[in-house]
Amino acid sequence: MTLTIPFDNSYARLPDGFFARQAPEPVRAPKMIAFNEPLARILNVSSGDLQDMAEAFAGNTLPEGAEPLAQLYSGHQFGHYNPQLGDGRAVLLGETVGTDGIRRDIQLKGSGRTPFSRQGDGRAWLGPVLREYVVSEAMHALGIPTTRALAAVETGEIVLREGPMPGAVLTRVAHSHLRVGTFQVFAARGQLDHLRQLIDYAIARHYPQADGPMGLLRAVRDAQARLIAGWMSVGFIHGVMNTDNCAISGETIDYGPCAFMDTYHPNTVYSSIDRMGRYAYSNQPDIAVWNLAQLATALIQQAEDKEAAVEEATEIVHAMPDLLQDNWLRRFRAKIGLTRAEDGDLQLISDLLTRMAQNQADFTNTFRALGGSAPRDQFTDPEAFDGWAEGWQARLQREADPKATMQSANPAFIPRNHRVEQMIQAAVQGDYAPFHRLNAVLAQPYTDQPDAAELMNPPASDEVVSATFCGT
Ligand code: AMP
Ligand code: MG
Hints:
The protein has helices spanning 37-43, 50-58, 126-142, 180-189, 192-206, 212-233, 284-300, 306-318, 320-335, 345-358, 363-370, 382-396, 402-409, 417-428, 433-442; strands spanning 19-21, 31-35, 69-71, 75-77, 80-82, 90-97, 103-109, 124-125, 148-160, 164-174, 236-237, 259-260. By secondary structure, the protein is an alpha+beta fold. Among the domains are: 11-174, no CATH class; 330-409, no CATH class. The strands form four sheets. Strands 2, 6, 7, 8, 9 and 10 form a six-stranded antiparallel sheet that branches. It has a two-stranded antiparallel ribbon with strand order 1-3. It starts with 18 loop residues before the first strand and ends in a 30-residue tail after the last helix. The structure holds adenosine monophosphate and magnesium ion. The site of magnesium ion has 3 residues, from loops.
């Protein structure tokens, strides 16, 4: 049996300037690590025998209908414009239309050099591949828009990072890989025909109801506001919110040095390359607005009447902070059991977060305990919780079923960073049991799983991971 993917490619029909046709580079000894059956069913992908799939997901063989290409884009990295990035170690095999009618990209990541590789080797090592697999699938199970993982394979080759590491390839699935940077590259080069074509393509693919470039800007703004509020509500820190890692579809994309917070503090940063804390937890909404402003700047370039476009775009971008706040409030209201909106809610939530930060409260476990048991035990000074809970209890009187609201808004399980690191260390030794266990437990994050209690615990002092590295 051979792997079959019912490709229906559209990006490959765009003009040459949008991409470089590039086949994946074969690897020495492909070996299957994981294949995501439930996702494959949505994609109408039917599996082949194991070795056949390993060869295909490593890029050694091309499934029929694949038209591999590396996409061009640019972007602001840590606030500085880099005029040419592009897929330096990924190729888009093509697209499929799923059982749900949604068109999705199927991309190999770590599949060899491309014309956009610059100094890079075009490869990925096992650690980041497994991290992205676990964390993106967990994000999906949490109900937050994200790219997904269809497969992971070992390459049987060594990749040089901090030392020699086992190589791997991830098969990533996304509603598309269009980024803010995809628009920026054509705007910056003055390729207005390409820019207009890209706008039409993005609207048709993602936001068919959007009216022109400014309608697209509005739709991206709304999707990003929902996304960032989702991240904030589960304590997720992306780590590298550059404009090339900001998807037009509103999905979480490019899992690098990302992490979920254990102990709550708004200034938390994990990425070892983010020395200024630009992408700290609490900065993420502001950065999302900054990124949208970069998209606006790019979209304006194609307008006939620049002045009118600037005015409209400014208005759209300036409305984003309030939208972020609305989405954030909706998420955090649910986290403390509220479905109705009342004036004091923002104050109530902020007060809880302040006390959590002052008392080294675990973000996930504290919220889960609000709808479960013994939340006060999460605080170094439990009376700090009691002082808040009085007002909260009074507010809950006006809610019908706060416990149910909280249990479906507050996950019991997140991919804790120390568990992800332990999983990677085991996999490097050839033990994939922790990887499969993490995937299984994280597939149902809102369900109590008493036999997985060890995955709920915050790290012991010798397990704490304080930095995640970009040596991906
Ligand atoms: P990232 O930080 O993963 O979003 O990557 C930023 C840019 O660097 C993108 O254009 C990537 O394609 C490229 N890149 C990252 N790692 C490699 C690598 N090992 N080889 C080639 N290009 C890479
Ligand atoms: Mg990237």
